[in-house]
Amino acid sequence: MKNVSILVLDFGSQYTQLIARRLREDKIYCEIIPYHSTLDMIKAKNPQGIILSGGPSSVYNKDAYEVDQGVYEMGIPVMGICYGMQRIA
Q1: Residue 24 included in any domain
Q2: Is residue 77 part of a domain?
Q3: Can you tell me the distance from the alpha carbon of 21 to that of 50, in angstroms, rounded to the nearest whole number?
Q4: Which of 28, 31, 47, 54 could make an SS bond with 13 (beta carbons 3.0 to 4.6 A apart)?
């Protein structure tokens, strides 16, 4: 595998496993962790990038899933897919 580590923060998408599989097929190491993981847990994995998965919720819901805002201040690329992109916006 390439010396790249990507974290997939899982918001409950039915495609999260597929995202990880596609990365691994390209020889990129990745781990799937829950969206509510602490910033310290995320930093301890030393990722070179983060993918925010999709999910069944809406960002407009009162109890919408959140990710620690420190993720955006780590100085690494963050990509969102569907719900994940809405979270970034």
Answers
A1: yes
A2: no
A3: 15
A4: 54
Q: Is residue 84 domain-resident?
A: no
Give 22-47 pLDDT, tens digit per residue: 999 999 999 999 999 999 999 999 99
CA pair distance 2, 40, nearest whole angstrom: 24
Dist. CA 86–CA 14, nearest whole Å: 17
- The answer to whether 8 touches 33, Cβ cutoff 8 Å, is yes
The pLDDT confidence band at residue 2, using thresholds 50, 70 and 90, is low
Encoding tokens for residue 5? Answer: 């580590």
Confidence of residue 65 (pLDDT cuts 50, 70, 90): very high
Residues 6+ apart with CB under 8 A from 5: 29, 30, 31, 45, 46, 47, 48
Looking at the structure of the chain, the number of domains it has is 1
Rounded to an integer, what distance in angstroms lies between the CA atom of residue 25 and that of residue 18?
A: 10
